[in-house]
Amino acid sequence: MPVPAANKQAYLAVAAKQAAVIKEHGATRVVEAWGDDVPDGEITDYRSAVKATGDEVVVYAWVEWPSKQVRDDAWKKVIADPRMYADTMPYDNQRRVHGGFALILDA
User: Fold this and answer.
1) Phi then psi for 30, rounded to 5 degrees?
2) d(CA 102, CA 72)
3) Which of 57, 58, 76, 96 is such that its CA lies 20 to 30 A from the CA of 12?
4) What confidence tens digit (pLDDT) does each residue in 41-93 have?
5) Which of 33, 7, 6 is nearest to 19 (CA)?
6) How many angstroms from the chain centroid is the CA of residue 92?
């Protein structure tokens, strides 16, 4: 997701609150990574995927769950939890890319 560089601390504060909610609902790990080397690609890249502007930094985040079933059940509760919406988002949530992935290699 693209986050205005000036909103880094605000983003981190919201992310920490939301991570606690997500973990309360069963996640084993929540990771937020602030882009510090996200180059433009020749065909596609992270910045163009989220339409990041010059003053925005791409944040790459993921949540680990003990199983797909736990994730599927918990995510409904996470989305319904009013604490997830208690703060103003310090980024444009419409440009966030998200999905679920199955682990195929853990080296």
Assistant:
1) -130, 125
2) 13
3) 76
4) 999 999 999 999 999 999 999 999 999 999 999 999 999 999 999 999 999 98
5) 33
6) 12
What is the CB neighbour count within 10 angstroms for residue 66? 11
Written as one letter, the residue type at 94 is Q
As a residue count, the chain comes to 107
**Model pTM score:** 0.90
At residue 31, the 3 state secondary structure works out as strand
Note the Cα 87 to chain centre separation in Å. 15
Where does the chain have alpha helices with state H?
8-24, 46-49, 68-80
Using only the alpha carbons of the chain, give its radius of gyration.
15
